[in-house]
Every structure is written in structure tokens, then in C-alpha cells.
Amino acid sequence: MNNNQEAGKYAYQVSYEEIREVLSDEFEMALIDKALDESKHGYVPVEDRKVTDFWNQLYDFVENNYPDTFNLQGHKGEVRGSNAVWVTMNSGHGTSVVIKADRGFVDLVIPGYADRFAEFSKVNKDVIDQKRLYIRTASKSLTVRKYIEIIDFAGDFSDQIDRVEDAFNKAKELQDLVKYLKF
User: Fold this and answer.
1) Amino acid 11: pLDDT
2) pLDDT tens for residues 135-174?
3) I want to staple 1 with a disulfide (CB 3.0 to 4.6 A). Which of 7, 47, 171, 175 is the partner?
4) Tell me: the pLDDT tens digits for 109-122?
5) What does the DSSP 8-state code read for residue 180?
6) What residues pair up with 144 in beta bridges, in sequence order?
7) What mean pLDDT do residues 69-89 have?
8) Do residues 97 and 108 make contact, with C-beta atoms less than 8 angstroms apart?
């Protein structure tokens, strides 16, 4: 609290550690422990065990089926919160592929190209038409999109294996497309 200017304005100060000493409820103590951890390390996700388990199975799936193809952000065993439903991977040339499982699409993200939408679409028209792609802009990026079925990361992985396979096959198509697009 010594380096918090707002806290210094008040005559009485109570630290998280002092609050924790008087608590007896385990849930309340867990909340204080989380606050202490956040103050030391920044954002700390509240784990959703089902989502964490899904991610662990997803890492195994990618390792077994696409060992040299995808470089997923994060790592197996990482704690995941309920909102951790986008799978991001580097696809080369400054681009990335993102499986947005909760929205039902896979995007090839090309940073800094939002304002070049018309030019990009014109130059790549043949590839876009042939591959039946959808081009979108998002903030400063341009995205090349393929649609998939929604994947529920809180659901059972084995019940959705066909959806996961389809999503990664489309992610591979988009990743391979980087070689043919002009940008």
C-alpha cells in the first residue's frame, strides 16, 4: 500500500494480509488469496475446471494430429477460465489463425490491413472466390474467415471431436492460404 497514492490519503489502512488473518470462512480466504496473487502477478483467471480439461485434451489432439503444423499460444496444464474459448496460433508472415469456438468461425488475421479491404479483396479475388472465403475487418486488422460449428469448451471433448477436427482442418486451410494471398 505504500506505493498506492489513493490509499495514502486515508488515516487508516488495512492490508489484504490483515483481513485474511481475521477470516474463518475458506471461500472468503480464497478470495483474499486471489486478490493477493493478483496484486503480485496481475490478472489471475478464475479456473473453470471443465474448460481447463477441454484445453488439455485439445493440446493432446493437436500434438497427435498436427504435430508440426500448429503452434498454439499457451501450454498444456495452464489454468483456463470460462471465457477461454478462442484458440490462437501463429501462421507466419506476421499473421495468426484464431478459432473463435463460441462464435462459429476461424479467422486468418492480417494486422494493419483493415483500411486496405477493397484493395486486398480485388487483388485476391480469384483465391477468395475459389476457396469460398469471407473477408471482414476488425479494428485495425483484416480477417479471412471460414465458418465452423460452435464448440462448447465446457462440454465433453469426445462428444465434439468432429467439430474440433473440422475447426483445425479449416485453420490449416487458412494457414496454408498465407502462401497464396497477396498482402
Assistant:
1) 76
2) 998 889 999 999 999 999 999 999 999 999 999 999 999 9
3) 7
4) 999 889 989 999 99
5) T
6) 108, 135
7) 92
8) yes
Separation CA 141–CA 109 (nearest Å): 6
Helix H or strand E encompassing 90: strand 86-92
- How far is residue 14's CA from residue 108's CA, in Å, rounded to a whole number? 49
What Å distances lie between residue 43 and 14, 37, 38, 40, 107, CA to CA?
Answer: 22, 9, 5, 9, 26
Residues 6+ apart with CB under 8 A from 142: 109, 110, 113, 114, 116, 117, 120, 135, 136, 183
8 A C-beta contact, residue 149 and residue 165 = no
Residue type, 77: G
Strands (E), 131-181: 134-138, 141-147
C-alpha cell belonging to residue 117: 479491404
Contact yes or no for 152/50 (Cβ under 8 A): no
